[in-house]
Please model this.
Amino acid sequence: MKTRVLSGLIMLPLLIIVIFNGWVLYAGCLAISLMACYEFFRGFRELDIKPSYPIAVCSIVALYLLGMLKELAEKDGDLATSWMGLFRAEQWTYLWIFATILACLLYLFSIEKRKIDDATVTITGVFYVGFFCYLIGELALSEMNILVWLVIITAFGTDICAYFAGVTMGKHKLCPKISPKKTWEGAIGGILGSVILSGIFGLIFAKPLLIHCLIIGFLASIVSMFGDLTASIFKRKMGIKDYGNLIPGHGGILDRFDSVLFTGPVIYFYASLIIGAAFAEGYWIEF
Amino acid sequence: MKTRVLSGLIMLPLLIIVIFNGWVLYAGCLAISLMACYEFFRGFRELDIKPSYPIAVCSIVALYLLGMLKELAEKDGDLATSWMGLFRAEQWTYLWIFATILACLLYLFSIEKRKIDDATVTITGVFYVGFFCYLIGELALSEMNILVWLVIITAFGTDICAYFAGVTMGKHKLCPKISPKKTWEGAIGGILGSVILSGIFGLIFAKPLLIHCLIIGFLASIVSMFGDLTASIFKRKMGIKDYGNLIPGHGGILDRFDSVLFTGPVIYFYASLIIGAAFAEGYWIEF
Model:
């Protein structure tokens, strides 16, 4: 119990980073991307697969740098018409994808030392861990960055409510082969909890978006569980229990953020596409 | 010899597709992406890895559809302000990356039937084969689509010139562990051949871009060889000689296009970034 409380304290900096939001959170996402990717790759050591962490670091840092320059270019017309404007916005993303894949393929050129897995896992780590987390950073820089709170609320809310619902009422196994303790009752409790918590958040902090908060609470809760199970699958295949022990009693960064990696992008796209559409149609209300 | 001549005839449709350029070539690139990805995945059967071809097909088709809609939206202002305009251009690419990675991760949920490799190789196939080839399609739709010819000329020119230079003068091995027959003399011959052929092309068809054609001939020739070697590495690890036997005497689509997959993106980025910059600065000359 004491360890758990202490670990809770370790989560405090995270809270402060989310309160600051914007660029501070963007930098926080970069740090989490890099640490989580490190843990992800370390897990593969057990399978004798050695992905390239240096390539992943370069690729992830380049992604965040590009995102930063893009944001600055949007705000500053001069920059947009200078070198950033040489490409259309999506071409920078194309270049990033190409350079990342190319680097991973060239990594195989020391053919005797490398296995194909070393490259394919590097690619997967960059996209699954690095890119998914980057989208939370993008959300933090957007006009709707208040929704970053829902990324955390839906992921942790689902987790905690599912735990208590499962412990008290759990009977029917959800997917015993992936995660033996999870039950349908827990899953339903998690979704309900996430919807209620997101609704409370909406009522207090973003009243005009209340209906969207409820929908997000529902959708993100489901993907949150998929995020959790995805991490479980990887760990099961690697034969490890936790990705790390950075946070005593909670495992590594990636154990804590496995759900966040999935709720983040879904809320980012929901905010850009659905709420952004309402904004474009003039249904926007200041809050 | 007879097989070789007949196979040459099979390459004729390709020539016609490149002559048509534009949308016809775009559709051709989609077909090649799908066929090459199929061959790539089939090669992994030898290693008992079963990537998901259906996921790859959905992802690659979605990529080309998005590219098509983006192109139409750019030409037609109405479409741009309607649903396509909900997202900024690069956000569609983000959504495509996210959906692709998510689908590959969910593929692992049949945990007993799948290995991690099944997902990571699916991801790699979509990006390496599908996405790289897609960039040639993007080039075909751009204002500088005449440069598509250089994608072919540098890739095949390097290959053929390197072969003859290697046969006649080859002494010093280039990388015996990856591809035992390749020599430094061949590589230099290939580069020279590519530069000369690109120069001739520039002189006849794109005189104002001659200097760029020569630079492209040099750069693309080098990456062309990396493309060839990358495919060799995969085949070596898979323990196969050719990806397929679609074109008798030439192997499969991917054996023929391994270099094109690398010259395509490099020329696409060169055209967008370097020549596009000259265009923006007013150094553009009609041709």
